Amino acid sequence: MRTDLAVIGAGPAGLAAALAADRRGLRVALFDAAPEPGGQFYRQPAAGLRAERPQALHHQWRTWTRLRDRLAASSVRVLGEHHVWCVERTPDGPVVHALLGPEQEKPAEVRATAVLLATGGYETVLPFPGWTLPGVVTAGGAQAMLKGGLVVPGRTAVVAGTGPLLLPVATGLAAAGVRVAALVESADPGRLLRHAGALAGKLPEGAGYAARLLRHRVPFLARHTVVRAHGDTRLTGVTVAALDAHGRVRPGTERRLPCDTLAVSHGMLPHTDLAGSLGCRLDGPTVAVDAEQRTDVPGVWAAGEATGVGGAALALAEGHIAGRSIAARLRGAVPDPGEWAPAARARARLRGYAAALDAAYAPPAHWTDRVTDDTVVCRCEEVTAGTVREALTLGAGDARTVKLLTRAGMGWCQGRMCEPAVAGLAGREPVPSRRPFARPVPLGVLAGQHEQHEQHEQHGQQTERGPS
Ligand SMILES: Cc1cc2nc3c(=O)[nH]c(=O)nc-3n(C[C@H](O)[C@H](O)[C@H](O)COP(=O)(O)OP(=O)(O)OC[C@H]3O[C@@H](n4cnc5c(N)ncnc54)[C@H](O)[C@@H]3O)c2cc1C
């Protein structure tokens, strides 16, 4: 199959871009690993569940219905359950390689003239004693169960960690009937106040969440952290404690909260694997883009959380700009930024909020003090903090050397989960790894690729020689 534009990711950024490009006459293929478009923010219940009021679980439902209806009326080819494992650069333009269906074994490829990476972000969870017990889930995971599966993870939950995501998760669980025993936020509200000017436009949203927490009687424990999750075969409770101004536990403040669910998150990181393997320049943990959302690789654009975590509205604005830029550039025209001025203004304002929130929310300094040696850090390879520390004392100074010495990061997730923890234990900032593939790929698929390339080459040589 050949298309003008391949959009990877059908969240707000990918949807906005696909619609903008379709409207300007491009053939667009919209890939997503999920069966339905929507991404994280507009995640929809599985069709078989026949949800009667899915809007009850969502904010900004009107925006979603507009996007959904415009997509249905468009010519965009929606390719659900397409897990993109690689975008290959070829002289004829990018080739998108995907694995189909829930089994992710059958390959598919689409040739395109341009690619937009709108792959979103994923949650960071830092380890603490007991975090691998059944009943401990990520905050986004709890929300995905609710929005996508219409199920709650338990009866009594503690929502903990740091970041704005904890607010919709705690209020969403409470509205669904879960008793939320506490929202435990490690950030200091004083830091939010310090950025009050930059965040003034976010006040109504914050006030809305505060009202919902009050209505559902959810205790809000600011400058607190979970120091341990308890249970033998599954979670039975957590110990929380207050933090001092330096992020250390204040002795004597520990108390136990019984619960069967702990929904935890320590912030988000952009998905940069596809960008990295394409050779796009990264700016810290994000894909670097210009004012048109172009990466430094010709024919490759990026938008949404892949270029910086900042919320669904920012993703929509960036996607819209990218779609318009791609449509103009593929026609051979230089786009007029004046055409997307409102989206550019929204982008500047929302990036300002994102920077302020980023500065206000951070995992507590000294979080590693509370990670005991027997705490598992890399879940895939079952590597403990003690083993990582031993590697560090042997001279391993970065995540890569720790990986070689301990296997931390060599498992199924390829370090996506444990990298921030390993970096923290090493006293360094996490640096995104360059991974050749964005997903695990069956060897049969790789072998098939190799055979195809060989056949192409042989065919090319025969064509050059002419018929014998
Ligand atoms: C777990 C989670 C929960 C969140 N909950 C909230 C919330 O409650 N409120 C809020 O304001 N914000 C929330 N956010 C943030 C919000 O979802 C984002 O701001 C917004 O959705 C970003 O839009 P996006 O289009 O950049 O990415 P996303 O909405 O994340 O969409 C990216 C899409 O790309 C697809 N994708 C990624 N890699 C591949 C691949 N290799 N192959 C195929 N498809 C791929 C994913 O399946 C996904 O559908 C959440 C984020 C996460 C990660």
From TrEMBL:
<protein>
    <submittedName>
        <fullName>NAD(P)/FAD-dependent oxidoreductase</fullName>
    </submittedName>
</protein>
<dbReference type="Pfam" id="PF04324">
    <property type="entry name" value="Fer2_BFD"/>
</dbReference>
<feature type="domain" description="FAD/NAD(P)-binding">
    <location>
        <begin position="4"/>
        <end position="312"/>
    </location>
</feature>
<dbReference type="InterPro" id="IPR051691">
    <property type="entry name" value="Metab_Enz_Cyan_OpOx_G3PDH"/>
</dbReference>
<dbReference type="InterPro" id="IPR007419">
    <property type="entry name" value="BFD-like_2Fe2S-bd_dom"/>
</dbReference>
<dbReference type="InterPro" id="IPR023753">
    <property type="entry name" value="FAD/NAD-binding_dom"/>
</dbReference>
<dbReference type="Pfam" id="PF07992">
    <property type="entry name" value="Pyr_redox_2"/>
</dbReference>
<dbReference type="InterPro" id="IPR017224">
    <property type="entry name" value="Opine_Oxase_asu/HCN_bsu"/>
</dbReference>
<dbReference type="InterPro" id="IPR041854">
    <property type="entry name" value="BFD-like_2Fe2S-bd_dom_sf"/>
</dbReference>
<feature type="region of interest" description="Disordered">
    <location>
        <begin position="429"/>
        <end position="468"/>
    </location>
</feature>
<keyword id="KW-0560">Oxidoreductase</keyword>
<feature type="compositionally biased region" description="Basic and acidic residues">
    <location>
        <begin position="450"/>
        <end position="459"/>
    </location>
</feature>
<dbReference type="InterPro" id="IPR036188">
    <property type="entry name" value="FAD/NAD-bd_sf"/>
</dbReference>
<feature type="domain" description="BFD-like [2Fe-2S]-binding">
    <location>
        <begin position="376"/>
        <end position="424"/>
    </location>
</feature>
